[in-house]
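Long-time lurker, first post. I've been practising inverse folding by hand and with some scripts of my own, and I keep getting stuck on stretches where the C-alpha cells seem ambiguous. Below is the full C-alpha cell string for one chain I'm working on. Before anyone asks, I'm not after the true native sequence, just a reasonable design that respects the backbone. If someone could post their per-position residues I'd love to compare against what I wrote down in my notebook.
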C-alpha cells in the first residue's frame, strides 16, 4: 500500500517538475539524502500511518459456491482506509534551487488533490479518486516532527493521502465451512449427523463451521504430510491430517489457542491460533526432520 502511493506520487512529481526521472526522488529518511552536489532531488518520506476517521470500515462479504465437489468459500472484506502522511522536501546546490523545485512540486500537487484513477498505479485503481491534502497542518505537531527527524527545520510540504487497504480473499479449501457430499451406501453413524438423509441412502450435504484449519508440510520437500497429529493444548480436541496435509477443528469457543503438531521422525512444533468468530484461522505449518 505504501509502495503504491509512493510510486503514484513519484510519477506525478517527476513528470510535472523539472526533474528528469523518478530516480531523482528519494524515499529514505531525509538525513540520509545523497551527497552535496548531486543535483536537484525531492525527498518523499512517510512518517505516519493511521486509520482514517473520515472513511469507516464496513464489514465483509462472503461468496460461496457449492457443488457436488468440495468447494472453498471466498471471504472478501471491504477495504479499510488509512491516512498516509508524508513529508516532501527539496534538496539542491542552492537555497534558490530548492525553493524553485519545491514551488514546482506544490503547483503540480495542488492540481492533483483528487488523485484520479488514470494517474494511480494499477494496484490502487477500482476505488475511484483518492483524496490528498497538501500543505495542511501535519498529523504530528511540526516542531515534534522535525525534532524526531533530528535535522534542522527547512521548507517542506506536508502531504496526506487516504488509501484503501484490502485484505486478500482467502481461497483455501474447506476453511470457512466444511461441506461433505456423499452418495450411495454409508455407515449408520453418519445418519446422526446434521444432514439431509434421503430414502435412497444419499446424504445431500453436511455442513459444519470450521474455527481453525491448516496444512502441515515437510519443511525440506514442501510436500503435504499425511497423518500428522494435531492437538489443541488445554482441550481434549485432536485430529490427524488427511492425504492433502489438511486438518480442521470445529466448535471452538472464541479465544487464543495453541496447537501442537507432531509426527514420528519430525521435530514437534507449536503454533498459536486465534478464534474470534469472524473468520477461520488458517495455519501453514512446516515440520523439520528430527
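-- Answer (accepted) --
I ran through it position by position. Result:
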Amino acid at each position: 500500500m505504501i509502495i503504491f502511493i509512493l510510486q503514484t506520487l513519484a510519477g506525478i512529481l517527476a513528470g510535472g517538475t523539472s526533474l528528469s526521472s523518478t530516480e531523482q526522488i528519494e524515499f529514505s529518511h531525509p538525513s540520509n539524502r545523497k551527497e552535496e552536489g548531486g543535483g536537484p532531488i525531492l525527498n518523499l518520506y512517510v512518517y505516519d500511518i493511521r486509520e482514517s476517521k473520515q472513511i469507516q470500515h464496513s464489514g465483509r462479504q462472503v461468496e460461496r459456491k457449492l457443488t457436488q465437489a468440495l468447494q472453498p468459500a471466498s471471504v472478501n472484506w471491504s477495504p479499510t482506509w488509512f491516512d498516509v502522511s508524508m513529508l516532501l522536501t527539496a534538496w539542491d546546490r542552492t537555497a534558490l534551487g530548492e525553493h524553485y523545485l519545491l514551488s514546482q512540486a506544490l503547483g503540480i500537487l495542488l492540481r492533483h488533490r483528487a488523485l484520479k484513477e488514470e494517474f494511480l498505479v494499477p494496484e490502487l485503481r477500482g476505488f475511484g479518486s483518492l483524496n490528498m491534502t497538501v500543505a495542511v497542518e501535519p498529523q504530528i505537531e511540526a516542531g515534534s516532527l522535525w525534532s524526531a527527524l533530528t535535522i534542522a527545520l527547512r521548507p517542506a510540504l506536508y502531504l496526506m493521502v487516504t488509501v484503501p487497504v484490502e485484505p486478500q480473499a482467502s481461497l483455501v479449501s474447506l476453511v470457512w465451512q466444511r461441506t461433505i457430499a456423499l452418495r450411495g451406501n454409508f455407515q449408520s453413524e453418519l445418519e446422526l449427523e446434521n444432514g439431509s438423509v434421503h430414502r435412497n441412502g444419499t446424504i445431500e450435504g453436511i455442513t459444519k463451521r470450521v474455527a481453525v484449519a491448516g496444512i502441515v508440510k515437510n519443511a525440506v520437500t514442501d510436500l503435504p504430510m499425511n497423518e500428522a497429529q494435531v492437538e489443541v493444548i488445554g482441550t481434549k480436541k485432536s485430529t490427524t491430517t488427511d492425504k492433502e496435509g489438511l486438518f480442521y477443528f470445529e466448535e471452538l469457543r472464541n479465544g487464543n489457542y495453541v496447537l501442537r503438531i507432531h509426527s514420528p521422525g519430525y521435530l514437534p512444533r507449536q503454533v498459536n491460533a486465534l478464534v474470534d468468530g469472524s473468520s477461520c484461522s488458517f495455519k501453514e505449518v512446516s515440520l523439520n526432520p528430527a
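A couple of notes from the structure itself: Residues 19 and 169 are 39 Å apart (CA to CA). The chain has two domains: 2-54+80-165, 177-287. Happy to go over any region you disagree with.
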